[in-house]
TrEMBL record:
Residues 9-89 form the Arginyl tRNA synthetase N-terminal domain. PROSITE patterns: AA_TRNA_LIGASE_I. It comes from Streptomyces olivaceiscleroticus. This is Arginine--tRNA ligase. InterPro entries: aa-tRNA-synth_I_CS (IPR001412), Arg-tRNA-ligase (IPR001278), Arg-tRNA-synth_N (IPR005148), Arg-tRNA-synth_N_sf (IPR036695), ArgRS_core (IPR035684), DALR_anticod-bd (IPR008909), Rossmann-like_a/b/a_fold (IPR014729), tRNAsynth_Ia_anticodon-bd (IPR009080). Keywords: Aminoacyl-tRNA synthetase, ATP-binding, Cytoplasm, Ligase, Nucleotide-binding, Protein biosynthesis.
Length: 585
């Protein structure tokens, strides 16, 4: 359980020490080390530093070279161009570092420096409504961020802020009272039945609601009964919630995602806090009465005709809405859950809402320098044609159909390559590959951008896809199985081929990428890293035969070691994204 400093960090430290010795007035200067094509690393820091101190960069770089004595680490260091340093490290240091990583369950990845508690609000569908691709994105991104944060030592608490409250429940409940047999008990239905029941009730009640004024009135009274906690009304409301959860869980299961019941805390959970939230806001003057409503104004948020757009905490009729529940949720998360960070994974189209909610919470002191909030607003999911995602008939695509189709397409890809798989295995792998493909496509686009949902591209074996990475992993497993008696053992004394060095140096960067992706809430940095890792492995595989009879036994062991540590890195990295890596494909 020891963290292993990366080669980049070690080299950076050495250069930095030499730099401070050569130029004491520079203090602890950053040599700005980067990976490079010419050598292993390039350091550019001397340029800016010499310029600032009116010195000659080449001269300074030369002094740094003279000051570095680390033969076990640095094989070659030379001044180039206007004053860069090109640095090549020893093969031995690469293998020794990888061996230290391999000895650790976490591959030597350190924990983040100052872990805190992050409450992450993701996967928040709405009761009695079908989930759509937008909900899919929140679930996939949120789940990956959570794995990433957990891995860095952050404590995470999930909150699935489901839409389980609001005036539409008056209509639904009233309809059920008048048509009692319409909703089967939640324990008797599967996900698909639950959703089709809910859909039917929703449509039927909407039809009556729109056509029948008297029903409309009864529905309105029902909302009041619900809000005042009438027992019969609440019981019926609970039935809608339970039935919906059966459906949600079936989708999350398909998504191969673990959702905990105690973390499904929807809008309704904050019902009892809302009046107090409003009172605190009003007493402090942060919110003011305007035309009967309780609202918060912002200087920089204006709508049409330059009119200020306020955040409505309480409507003129006394009702509380979305903002009041979110403000109450912030109080709960900060005070009761002791969060240091509030992270929201919500469609970018709600970013104005969150901007106003966060600013209000800051004015109240609920958010401050120690407790911050971020919305990872994600972009819209588009069809392959670049238009909002719809079926040919122009309807919204059912999420389940989409996931089923992904699994089916992936099964076809698996079948084509499968040599020794049974039909059952093909279907199982198909699901893992297909769901993985959907997740990967989602995660590899930086979240704030729209992305095209193109199944053909997603399950392609070539290009930046999860399937490509899964194949690299399965191929390694197949080599390890075929190795017979030979074990993966690092041999630092052996010289490395270029493809081995490139692979090894990339494996070594895993920890930095993970910490960076977690700190920036940027899973796409990890997907890019893993894709490159799989590509470098493919090059290694083509150029450096592992189980070749002509290889000396220690070469076989050393290459098996590189295979193994690569596989473990791929596996761990994919797991952090919520994607499986089947042992055989
Ligand atoms: N249920 C909402 C929707 O489907 C998303 C909830 C987001 N979270 C929040 N705390 N407001 O649009």
């Amino acid at each position: 359980m020891a963290s292993v400093p990366s080669l980049a960090a070690t080299v950076n430290q050495r250069v930095s020490d030499a730099l401070s010795a050569a130029l004491p007035e520079a203090g602890a200067a950053d040599p700005l080390l980067r990976r490079s094509d010419r050598a292993d690393f390039q350091a550019n820091g001397m340029l800016a530093l010499a310029k600032k101190l009116k010195g000659n960069p080449r001269e300074l770089a030369g002094k740094v070279v003279d000051g570095i004595a680390a033969p076990e680490l640095i094989k070659e260091i030379e001044v180039s161009g206007p004053g860069f340093l090109n640095i090549t490290i020893t093969d031995e240091s690469i293998m020794k570092t990888l061996a230290a990583r391999a000895a650790d369950d976490r591959l030597g990845v350190p924990y983040a420096k100052n872990p805190g508690t992050t409450v992450i609000d993701y996967a928040q569908p709405n009761v009695a409504k079908e989930m759509h691709v937008g909900h899919l994105r929140s679930a996939v991104i949120g789940d990956a961020l959570r794995h990433l944060l957990d891995f860095t030592g952050e404590k995470t608490i999930g909150r699935h802020h489901i839409g389980d409250w609001g005036t539409q429940f008056g209509m639904l409940i009233q309809y059920l009272i008048e048509n009692p047999g319409e909703l089967a008990p939640a324990e008797d239905v599967d996900g698909e039945q639950a959703m089709s029941n809910l859909n039917r009730v929703y449509k039927a009640s909407r039809t009556v609601f729109d056509a029948d004024e008297e029903f409309k009135e009864r529905a309105r009274k029902r909302v009041v009964a619900l809000q005042s906690g009438d027992k019969e009304t609440l019981d019926l409301w609970q039935r809608f919630v339970d039935e919906s959860k059966v459906y949600f869980y079936s989708v999350f299961e398909k998504l191969d995602m673990e959702i905990r019941d105690d973390e499904i805390v929807g809008e309704s959970a904050y019902n009892d806090m809302m009046a107090e939230t409003a009172r605190l806001l009003e007493e402090s003057g942060v919110a003011v009465r305007s035309e009967g409503a309780l609202v918060v104004f912002f200087d920089d948020i204006k709508g049409k005709d330059d009119q200020p757009v306020p955040l409505i905490v309480q409507k003129a009729d006394g009702g509380f809405g979305y903002a009041a529940s979110d403000l109450s949720a912030i109080r709960n998360r900060v005070v009761d859950l002791q969060a240091t960070t509030l992270l929201y994974v919500v469609d970018v189209r709600q970013s104005l809402h969150f901007k106003m909610v966060f600013e209000t919470a800051r004015r109240m002191g609920w958010l401050n320098d120690q407790v911050t909030a971020h919305n990872m607003g994600y972009g819209t999911v588009l069809g392959a044609d670049g238009k909002p995602f719809k079926t040919r008939a122009g309807e919204t695509v059912r999420l389940e159909d989409l996931l089923d189709e992904a699994a089916q397409r992936a099964a076809e890809v698996v079948r084509e390559k499968a040599r020794d798989l049974t039909e059952e295995e093909i279907q199982e792998r198909g699901a893992q590959v297909g769901i993985g493909a959907v997740k990967y496509a989602d995660l590899s686009t930086s979240a704030n951008r729209d992305y095209k949902f193109d199944l053909d591209q997603m399950v392609s074996l070539n290009g930046d896809t999860s399937v490509y990475i899964q194949y690299a992993y399965a191929r390694i497993q197949s080599i390890l199985r075929r190795a017979g008696e030979a074990r993966p053992v690092a041999h630092p004394e052996l010289p490395l081929a270029p493809a081995e060095r490139a692979l090894g140096l990339h494996v070594d960067q895993f920890g930095e990428v993970v910490l960076d992706a977690a700190a920036e809430y940027a899973p796409h940095k990890l997907t890019a890293y893993l894709y490159q890792l799989a590509s470098l492995y493919t090059t290694f595989y083509d150029q450096c035969h592992v189980l070749n009879e002509d290889n000396a036994p220690e070469v076989v062991e050393n290459r098996l070691f590189l295979c193994d540590v690569t596989a473990r890195t791929l596996h761990r990295g994919m797991a952090l994204l919520g994607i499986r890596t089947p042992e055989r494909l």
